[in-house]
Amino acid sequence: MTETTRRPAVQVTRPATRAETFDEMLAELTAADAFAAALQGKACTVWGAGTTETVMPARRWLAEADASDHAVLRRCVGATVDIGCGPGRMTHALQCLGVTTLGIDLVEDAVILARDRGAMALQRDVFAELPGEGRWETALLADGNIGIGGDPVRLLRRAASLLVDDGRIVVDLHVPGGAVRVHDIGLEVSGRRTARFPWAVVPADQIELLAEQVGLRVLDVVDHEGRWFASLEKGPS
Ligand SMILES: C[S@@+](CC[C@H](N)C(=O)[O-])C[C@H]1O[C@@H](n2cnc3c(N)ncnc32)[C@H](O)[C@@H]1O
User: Fold this and answer.
1) C-alpha count within 13 angstroms, C-beta hemisphere, residue 86
2) Ligand 1 center to 104 CA (angstroms)
3) Which of 88, 147, 217, 219 is the most buried (most CB within 10 A)?
4) CB-based burial, 163-175: b 16+ in 10 Å, e otherwise
5) Is the CB of 126 under 6 A from ligand 1?
6) CATH code matching the domain that covers 12-234, chosen among 3.40.1190.20, 3.40.50.150, 3.30.420.40, 3.90.1150.10
7) What DSSP designation does 150 have?
8) 122 CA distance to ligand 1 centroid (A)?
């Protein structure tokens, strides 16, 4: 009888090649990844032409609504959609005041955190279909969210389309001075950068002009201890 020797299967562990290491280094960090990392407490820097490098204020978004947030929230009348709700600070505060509120945000981790604190939130793109189209009484664009998409006229038009005929948009603004600016910004976490994406900055003294282009009426522009915001009324079309 011939004896056959069975060799144990050889386990091959392949070391990472130089190409893989480079791929990893160059792997694109998405804005959603960067934002999620910031919400987990990692330092996330906003960079780009025309902007001074700043650290994303995720800690503020994770905190409870403060006095200046409540000054904004007092303008939210009736069923409110909080566009770009992040981890749900404003959504939750409104709900606690007894206002029917839905937060929507592109980033899954933000929506999970919003729900964890008891806010009603959905992972949605503001430019895609949303629940209650045309039936919201207020659309909230808090914390610089007028910058979403880098085209404030398009965003205000979209927000207005979500509203009832006499609905309103409550929008945080930049301090007065200068023109509406659109920056190509990126985010950086642990030395990895996202691709650039457009983000708009709207000074408070420019909102009248923008509102006019969209067919909205400015109800008020408020300076609450240096935080500027406005209420815009839709009016019958
Ligand atoms: C400046 S942060 C706002 C933080 C939030 N208001 C808070 O209190 O925590 C901008 C938010 O807008 C969201 N966002 C960006 N583009 C969006 C889009 N197209 N649709 C919905 N949300 C978007 C981001 O994911 C991010 O959570």
Assistant:
1) 25
2) 8
3) 88
4) beeebbbbbbbbe
5) yes
6) 3.40.50.150
7) G
8) 12
Distance CA 98, CA 173 (A): 26
pTM given for the model: 0.88
Which amino acid would we find at residue 216? L
Mind listing the pLDDT tens digit for each residue in 154-171?
999 999 999 999 999 999
pLDDT tens-digit map of 60-101? 999 999 999 999 999 999 999 999 999 999 999 999 999 999
Q: Write the burial class of residue 80 (CB in 10 Å: 0-12 exposed, 13-18 middle, 19+ buried).
A: buried
**Which sequence spans correspond to the domains of the chain?**
12-234
